[in-house]
Give the backbone structure.
Amino acid sequence: MIVANPARSASLNMQCRCPKPQALAPQPYDMAQTLNDIKRLLAEHGLYPKKKFGQNFLHDGNHLHKILDAAKLTPGDIVLEVGPGTGALTERLVDAGARVVAVEIDRDMQPILEQR
């Protein structure tokens, strides 16, 4: 296998005769929200990330997957989620059978969470 910067590979005149990667089967908990989904949700409610709360929103499916794997949840587990934001992780916790207690300091996020 050849690994090269695609922008430079044309100038290097290299060809890879590697088999094309097969598509992976979808994970049981693919990302519920993309960055665009989050921006749209916030805009629909006239909101934006607030610096005073240090808000960051989970939109990386790999990180979501790692969090859920590390939690080793079993149905009926009680989970305290601090800062659920737009609910991406919250939904997956509930889908895994957890009972979720979500605590959000930004009261403006409440309508988004109630929708989900």
